Amino acid sequence: MRARPPTDDIDDEPDNVAFGIAALDARLDRSDLAFPADTAAVREAVGDVAVPYDASGRTMTVGEALADVPDQEFSNEQALLNALHPVFEEARLTNRTGLVGRLRSLVPF
């Protein structure tokens, strides 16, 4: 007699949280974006979806991120991701709340 596999969906590996260019890269892989591409083509292919920029889940839209990029045309996907990396990193660093900020957000007054 065989033992049944567990059905509680518990695995020993931690869940990975993708944010910043890693999260955007996954969306680019699912899009039909062709390079070279400009910012309008990126917005059209990916949409103006919210992309998390930190592990806490704070997001910015693709349009917001592209607005802060000095380049308007990208020769390949790596050039796009390299241009967007500082934008997501700056958002992550500037919007840190830390433990005190998180505790304050839990207090209703």
Structure overview:
- By secondary structure, the chain is mainly alpha-helical.
- The protein contains 5 helices and 4 strands.
- It has a domain at 21-96.
- Strand 2 and strand 3 (59-61) form a beta hairpin.
- The protein starts with 20 loop residues before the first helix and ends with a helix.
- 14% of the residues are buried.
- The mean pLDDT is 78.
Describe the structure concisely:
InterPro entries: DUF5789. With 109 residues, this protein is mostly helical.
Which terms would index this structure?
109 residues; two-stranded antiparallel sheet; mainly alpha
List strands and helices in order, with pairings.
Blueprint: H1 21-30, E1 37-38, H2 39-46, E2 50-52, E3 59-61, H3 62-67, E4 73-74, H4 77-94, H5 98-106
Antiparallel strand pairs: 1-4, 2-3
Helix pairs in contact: 1-4
Q: Oligomerization state of this entry? A: single chain
The radius of gyration is 19 Å
Overall mean pLDDT: 78
Strand content: 5-15%
InterPro entries: DUF5789 (IPR043899)
